[in-house]
Amino acid sequence: MRETILSQGEEIEALLQKLARDLHAAHGDKPLAFVGIRTRGVILADRLVAILKPLRGHIEQGTLDISLYRDDLDNLAALPHIEGSDIPFDVEGATVILCDDILFTGRTIRAAMNVLLDYGRPECIELAVLADRGHRELPIAATWCGARVETRREDYLRVHFKETDGRDDITHYTTKEARETE
Amino acid sequence: MKTVTPRKDLLSFDDMSREEALAILDTAKPFKDLFTRSVKKVPTLRGKTVLNLFYEPSTRTRTSFEIAAKRLSADVTNFAVSTSSVVKGESILDTIDTLQAMQVDYMIVRHSASGVPEYIARHTKASVINAGDGYHAHPTQALLDAFTYREIYPDLQGKRIVVAGDILHSRVARSVFALMHLLGVEVGTFGPAPLIPPTIPDYVKVFTRFEEVLEFNPQVLYLLRLQLERQTANFFPSMREYHRVYGVTTERFRRIREMGMYIMHPGPVNRGVELVDDVMSYERSLINAQVENGIATRMAVLYHLTPEVKTRSGETEDHA
Asked: Which residues of B, range 47-86, sit inside 8 Å of A by Cβ?
């Protein structure tokens, strides 16, 4: 197994700052709702909101659990544990910034959009990701992207956050065995 | 990722671990949260078929399962036994073969004979959920009861429950005993001696006087429905006598309220037999919560089970 740390610590902070600033500049005073996809999308949303709060004041926040909307439930050996979604604001007419750590096939984002639309009809949904590793299987693109990473389809890319993993970094694993250490 | 190994059938709690029971109960919570959304359905069982196979009349349980299955986007068929070929003498296995050919993924089975759901489960690749068999088991009722109990006390370890009434004729009692014991709850029972079966598990404390129940001081008093349709022998003199000796009378209700006990009942209630009318409006009556929680709990059970047939790919997987 070969692992390469692509960015870490301050570099991650800089990526987050840039993401937040771009978002802020594009939306002006318009109220935004940040919705993170469990687990690390929630942390990305938390981080962006923490940066933007001094600039924008109150920001709505929510979390999405996509387990029940996955398109591969039939083929899983074990069932995903369901934590549930928490959308404490009115989705109707909201501008939602959907957050996830990594954009890959696009299937997670497809599921997340379906969950969100079952809560109501937002004015628009934008997608913010920390890293885009390519290999899309659905026509989905990030509106806001921290870093673009060249990967092979069989590689494994992982974002670590202090809150869940004790450190901030983007790590690239180049063998399949890496998945089994998960 | 935290995951749960799926099982094919839910027939009783005989082969279930505490971890698995807690996993199902934990899953029911996010399902309940769905009910506040504008769209209450999730696409989890889209394309799957759920069959209600009720050989015994039931409206409440069948409807609860039907809503649960529909909120998971499954297609639901009710096999109305009285109008089917069962009355023409078709055997259970012939019926199952027919239904198997119709590619059913989940069968919800209720039967007046103990063991029929297990028998069916052995002969079908579909997941079988026991919705009540004879005097044997009614596991989803016990799960929704435990879910309701946990909404008030998230950790049931060391809590107490007394199940009161006709234990002998009650599959609900058997499943409630088993699951509560599995979850670390101390279990007691109270009822007419002829209606307490000799085969009652050792861990169940048997109380013969109501004063003993008060001393045990359970957080929940679980009243069973007196199965009027099953009282063929004379186990007690009369309804009025049953109410006076084993029911929640006005005087007992006063004590229960003072002690802050919660009341559960699997429904439907025989007013004036198991309990006086006032109990229905008691702020610590959980009877309506039980009904509401039935849907989320049954969704969690359907989610938890995995049929052997994979209808999409046509592959068969062996879970045995």
From this structure: none
